[in-house]
Design brief:
By secondary structure, the chain is of the alpha/beta class. The chain contains 13 helices and 13 strands. It has a 6-stranded mixed β-sheet, sandwiched between helices. It has a 4-stranded antiparallel β-sheet with strand order 11-12-10-13. It is globular and about 65 Å long.
Length: 310
């Protein structure tokens, strides 16, 4: 049975001389929590806007529930897209926003929305333009959660929340997702905060997808090896290096490869220290490599080591 609900096929988006999206191909399945990660300007919002018919691709195809979302009420009614810069009428109050959402989303849960408003200490009768940034963010995340839309996009609307409120959002999302599974896409710069929520990770960099994998497969897919520079270099000869730091005779090198049990035992026998690489570290290193900062080091690692030993 095909459980794919989002398909992006050869998507391009051009802005003058900029490729905001560069041949993006992506499939998203039902009832999973996805992380759409990447740097500012990487193309995350552009991709989500095209999938939700709020922007148009220069070429390629975007299908949601097997059809284009553009002017398609049967598709749009099943999608909730919450942006960081969500706009509301000036005279609206949060209670008005929730009433409007209830008219649009067939699975809207008003009791859940009321409980969330209480959790976030949101003043329901204050005009939206008078709300603080954190309160405005709370309006968005409440709509995104209480809509229970089959496909829900959160484009970093929770950045205005403080650390306690963000944790509350994560907790409520996981709790409600367990009882009401749906497909949720979290776009975030706060990678370490959301890492444990994600079932699948998509990383986009300069308009191209550079990682598309289950979160479980990513864990342990990279490792940092530290110790004597000569020993580290010899042990890692020929491997794909993402990052290298040196301090005197010591080196710390992150490789984009998993080590098997034999290799780990060998490293320990050589006196090397092995450290796991967090999802945030991995994304940072991969996007830096894409920009050429670490990539050139990875490509020339063997040559650099040999040169240093001459």
């Amino acid at each position: 049975m095909n459980d794919t609900i989002v398909e992006a096929r050869n998507l391009f988006k051009h802005y003058k001389d900029l490729n905001a999206l560069d041949n993006v191909n992506l499939n998203l399945s039902t009832n999973r929590i996805y992380g759409l990660l990447g740097r500012n300007g990487a193309g995350k919002t552009t991709l989500m806007s095209i999938l939700t018919a709020q922007a148009f691709a220069s070429s390629g195809e975007a299908l949601v529930f097997g059809a284009s979302a553009y002017e398609n009420d049967s598709v749009l009614s099943r999608i909730c897209f919450i942006r960081e810069s969500q706009k509301y009428p000036d005279d609206f109050q949060p209670q008005h926003a929730f009433r409007s959402a209830a008219l649009f989303y067939k699975d809207w849960d008003q009791q859940f929305a009321d409980r969330l408003a209480e959790d976030f200490q949101l003043p329901l009768k204050r005009r939206i333009k008078k709300l603080s940034r954190g309160q405005l963010s709370a309006v968005g995340v409440i709509i995104g959660l209480a809509s229970r839309a089959e496909l829900t996009f959160f484009d970093e609307p929770y950045l205005g929340l403080d650390a306690v409120a963000r944790q509350l959002f994560y907790d409520r999302l996981v709790e409600d997702y367990a009882d009401h599974p749906r497909t949720i896409i979290l776009s975030s710069h706060l990678i370490d905060e959301v890492a444990n929520l994600l079932e699948h990770v998509v990383v986009i960099d300069r308009g191209r997808i550079i990682m598309d994998a289950d979160a479980e497969d990513i864990r342990g897919s990279a490792v940092t090896v530290s110790g004597s520079a000569d020993t580290v270099d010899a042990f890692l000869m020929g491997r794909k290096v993402l990052h290298r730091e040196t301090l005197g005779s010591l080196a710390s090198v992150t490789v984009d490869e998993a080590l098997n049990s034999r290799e780990r035992a060998e490293a320990l026998e050589l006196g090397l220290e092995l450290s796991p690489v967090s999802l945030q570290q991995l994304v940072v290193r991969k996007t830096m490599a894409g920009a050429g900062t670490a990539a050139s080091g990875a490509e020339n690692f063997t040559d650099d080591v040999m040169e240093a030993r001459r």
